[in-house]
Amino acid sequence: MTSPSQGPLAGVRVIDLTQFVLGPYATQTLGDLGADVIKVEEPSGDRQRSGGKPPNSKTMGPLFVALNRNKRSVVLDLKGEPGRRALRKLIRTGDIFIHNMRPDTMARLGFSYDDVAAIKPDIVYIEAMGYAPEGPYAGRQAFDDLIQSAAGACGLTGMVDPDAVFRPLPSIIADKTCGLFATIATLAALRHKETTGEGQYVCVPMLETFTGYLMAEHLYNETYVPATGHFGHTTTITPYRKPWKTTDGHLMVMPASQAQAARFMALGDIPDAYESERFTSKKGAAARVAEYNAMMEEATATRSTAEWMALCAEHSIPVMVANEPEQIFNDPQLSQTLFEERDLEGEGRYRAMKPGIRFARSPATIRSDPPQLGRDTVEVLAEVGLTLEDVTQTAGETAQ
Fold this sequence. Notes:
Strand order of the largest sheet: 3-2-1-4-5-6
Distance between the termini: 42 Å
Strand content: 5-15%
CATH class of the largest domain: Alpha Beta
């Protein structure tokens, strides 16, 4: 299933040599914005193709499907000269070259920045790597868990709960965050090219990028030298920052003022909460904060989630349903604005998550579904004057 809609990057071609999560998330975002993304895969395919339980094939794993729409798949064996020769022809047609392989691997294949710039001088070359090249970790392998660990993510839950297990956050959040920064970097470099005609090399180091993102609020009083107080953003690491139970689910309640909080508690059968003896009898700020949260929790438990959503909309109190992860499919907002069922060639129906950003004149859309391995090889090679026979490895042309 395809759509003819054009996004703001229509006419931009991306030569995509990424795998795993970071790179595919970045290039899918560029594809959503209208770029023509040529996903160059080795004969065995992106390593995410084999994960999970696709209905029929063994090459359309769910994480691959989630990260690779709006791309054309071309199979090239870069260990042999025919595949490398074809890639050089593709590079001449590209605006962006992006990969998340180790730099020495790309140099060995003949596609370092200098190699690629010699083919296409104005290329925007995006290299996502684990660690900034000037530091002592340069060149080491990087995966999401490794980056989260070095960035301090394993200790964040312990700042709220001293008994929490020291472990990464349960999301591939470092890869996805750095994928978005790679997208931002690409757009900035394209703007530079547009105004100057110059391409350039862009490095997106995961550890530095993710740590800066993760710790933007948590440096807090350590922002100053010497420190003026504790590490960690006070309102983010409070143990009271959590949804409360309703009669049938959970609700996140965020009153913006004391008046809104008092109104919420009154709706939950606790009138005049701030004037009540149970509140005023508490001595000190910490005791009153604890009592306030206890009263809010009690009030929340008096009604259903739907009742609270309706009442708080009526009384202008900021709240939101707190979904269990598997409940998101039935959320009335998300089911209308995010999820879309589509037909995936060879696999049947699948659930796509539409681009969240909205453009009035050049919408971001799903123009094509995630590709079967090598689906577009013949078409893309023809665009640069090659055939399948031209990229078939022959004796004597294998890389040593």
